[in-house]
Fold:
Amino acid sequence: MKTIYVCSKCRSAFGGDGAIRECPECKGTLYDTQMAVEIWRTKTDEEKETIKNDIINKFSNINYDMNVIMSSTPTLEGYKIVDYIDFISEDVIFDNSVMDKLSAGVSDFFNALSFSAKELTGTTKLIEEAKRYVMTKLKRKAIELGANAIVGVDLDAAIGSTTVKISINGTAVVVKKIDEH
Structure:
């Protein structure tokens, strides 16, 4: 199902399926309104502006990297888990488009000429970007549930001929720093 995305910079709104990570017009961060395109079309211009403002205000003030601790371990040293909220997951399938492949391939070609390692650095960069995007989505989900940490995090990437699937899951929890005096 396509939902409406709003750009944090230019405030453009358009339908998408989650594959686009940045605004095609200005490269700003996109925020998912979680509103179906069909419903968006029934809204007045004034209602659309209110929705845009609400979404941008909700997400632009949150620094997901600073507010949510993520760990692959079931506990966090120096913290006590005071509430287990829920198991959460994100699965995102990205289009492995021709332009991305060409960009990565050119980068990989020139790196191969100057470096003897077999790492495909252009492709690696695309996968790392996708992982960061999916981790941010999982952190957003945790915050919306009232969590401040995610434990037992597992991240997996699968590369197909036309798609890249990134899966991440963990347990959203509330932690409290342990006093050490």
In short: The longest strand covers residues 79-95. The chain has a mean pLDDT of 76. The chain is about 35% helix and 35% strand.
